[in-house]
Amino acid sequence: MGDKVAQSPADSISYLTQREAAEIDETLMGPLGFSVDQLMELAGLSVATSIAEAYKASEYNRVLAICGPGNNGGDGLVAARHLHHFGYKPFVCYPKRTPKPLYSGLVTQLESLSVPFLSVEDLPLDLSKDFDILVDAMFGFSFHGTPRPPFDDLIQRLISLRHYDQARQKFPVIVSIDIPSGWHVEEGDIDGEGIKPDMLVSLTAPKLCAKKFCGPLHFLGGRFVPPSVAEKYKLRLPPYPGTSMCVRIGKPSKIDISALRENYISPEFCEDEVEADPIDQFRKWFDDAVAAGLREPNAMALSTAGKDGKPSSRMVLLKGVDRDGFVWYTNYESRKARELSYNPHASLLFFWDGLNRQVRIEGSVEKVSDEESEQYFHSRPQGSQIGAIVSKQSTVVPGRHVLHQQYKELEEAFSDGSWIPKPKNWGGYRLKPELFEFWQGQPSRLHDRLQYSPREINGGRVWEIQRLAP
Ligand SMILES: Cc1cc2nc3c(=O)[nH]c(=O)nc-3n(C[C@H](O)[C@H](O)[C@H](O)COP(=O)(O)O)c2cc1C
Question: How far apart are CA 179 and CA 440, in angstroms?
Fold first, then answer.
């Protein structure tokens, strides 16, 4: 059974034979109590989330799902429905409809969302102009033989895409579900003239043909394999991150860093809408970052420069903000602390990816009061308190084991829950802001930049707001 499960020496992922894939499906739908509807729903959702991870709806909006008569086609129909909800504009070509309640239900669901169904005749010969993503959901792992009309023609249209106007800047991408249609499940693209997908979404586990896949994006979906099945078939699969329905496998292709470019789309950010006080504006954007569910929205780059004037940056976590400034905690003998003791001027930078925003704050830094540091230190988990004692931050350590040994000893010493004294060399800093810049990405690099700088007016301080060129 597991004897034919091949192993890729490069990435240690299991690949399934056609027989094994069929057996796993039978086990899931037999003794393990799954229904085909459930597995199809999860498979289609995995495909849609994989597509959404790789191709943003703002750039790749028009999706054509070409669906075959079997389960693979059903996965495509489900994926089209989820893509609609994810903000894409799906179209479906489903020329050989399967007259079973499951499939007609999927069609009804799509029709109720006004997803257009296109006949093969409706489709342009050259699919490259009307669509950004072409989902190949024609044939899955159980298919063998030669594709029959109209799928032979549809496969040909996907193959010939590459022969059209190569100079065109943006080309539609081909996403194959589980198996590139027309490929042999185990041998792959036998004559080398089949579909060359940009993305392959393997379901449950990659099939043997996936070893021959050379496109840039290989994803795994179908997060429903119970441990008993994984053990029986000795499946080695990467863990899914967090609550994700998909995980990227295989090596990322070589990336041309100079070509990485986002076209930002954000609401307008205008002078007459911003808060007069930059701290209020900061709080507003910070709340947006929290509401958007961004990871560590309080992470900020802190830049300092010491005696020699050479700058250095590192990330720290914002632990408080009020009219007096921005607070973080650290070791008072670290490199940043040394630099700040020579030169109290520093800069903070927040970057909130997903909101296309950054905030720069410059000012002078001073230590927070000992009471403030004490209070924060004792609010931290015991492990972090011990960690702060163990780490002589920014000094050279002979090895990991040294830190772990010291940590273990202290953990034992404080295992009775006794009070852990704050080390003298640990505490907070507060940056008192003297300049703010709020930046928001906009299309064509015409970004918004609003700078707040203090002005003395009648002995009082007001913040002047100026727009800077992007
Ligand atoms: C997201 C993130 C948050 C961090 N937060 C802190 C922090 O709050 N305090 C701190 O001392 N180091 C923090 N660090 C580690 C610092 O970046 C840095 O390695 C350490 O403070 C030593 O810096 P230095 O040698 O320049 O003083 C954080 C690192 C990351 C990636």
Answer: 42
